[in-house]
Amino acid sequence: MTFSRSSKCRYEILNSVSRYVLYEGKKYDAWGTASTADDIGLRLAGENYPDWVAERYTQLPPDLSPRIAELAEEIAGHLPTPYDKAEALTGWLRANITYNEGIAAPPPDVDALEYFLFQSREGYCNYYASALAVMLRTQGIPARAATGYATGTLDSQANAYRVTASTAHAWVEVFFAGF
């Protein structure tokens, strides 16, 4: 499967699954866009979220540990904009949680997110993304965790990026009005 980035370069996706059989020599094209958002624009975006965004992307489970909301409030509750809150929460996670892809699963009957934030204090991208999305939602900021692949490695002879399962990644998408 090949993802065309431009006429000068393309992305190859390996180890992916398609609903359709893609035979050798067949081509799969995808297009995307790049954001023009900057720090100033995101700070000025405000909190005027469409109802469908707020309803869907601020949902929290009824049994969410209050400790998670309290931690988010302590870190970001005093900040003036959703952007500042997102930056503060991201910074806190990076400064206080050790990135480790080799961790064991949380113990049985333990809330994985609470365990990640308050006990193990280590994890990988899925844990970071889940924690940040939930912490943002406790602040009324629409967010979701997303998964996919990082860019991979450029193969200059093939003029293509080779993307393998080892480049799988998770991140958070935050809704900013107007962007």
What does this structure look like?
- Helix 4 packs antiparallel against helix 6.
- Helices cover 35% and strands 18% of the residues.
- It has helices spanning 39-44, 51-57, 66-76, 82-96, 112-120, 125-138, and strands at residues 2-4, 10-13, 98-99, 122-123, 143-149, 153-155, 160-163, 168-174.
- It contains six helices and eight strands; from the N terminus they run ββααααβαβαββββ.
- The strands form three sheets. A four-stranded mixed beta sheet has the order 1-2-7-6, with no helix packed on it. The protein has a two-stranded parallel ribbon with strand order 3-4. Strands 5-8 form a two-stranded antiparallel ribbon.
- The chain has 179 residues and is of the alpha/beta class.
- It starts with a strand and ends in a 5-residue tail after the last strand.
- The chain is globular and about 55 Å long.
- A hairpin with a 4-residue loop joins strand 6 (153-155) and strand 7 (160-163).
Largest sheet: 4 strands, mixed
Which quaternary structure do these chains form? single chain
Whole-angstrom Rg? 19 Å
Form type: globular
Q: What portion of the residues fall into strands of 2 or more residues?
A: 15-25%
Contiguous uncertain segments of 5+ residues: 1-16
Helix content: 25-40%
Element order, helices and strands?
EEHHHHEHEHEEEE
Number of strands: 8
Average pLDDT metric: 86
Search tags:
alpha/beta, disordered N terminus, 6 helices, 35% helix, 18% strand, 179 residues, 4-stranded mixed β-sheet, two-stranded parallel sheet
Fold topology:
Blueprint: E1 2-4, E2 10-13, H1 39-44, H2 51-57, H3 66-76, H4 82-96, E3 98-99, H5 112-120, E4 122-123, H6 125-138, E5 143-149, E6 153-155, E7 160-163, E8 168-174
Parallel strand pairs: 2-7, 3-4
Antiparallel strand pairs: 1-2, 5-8, 6-7
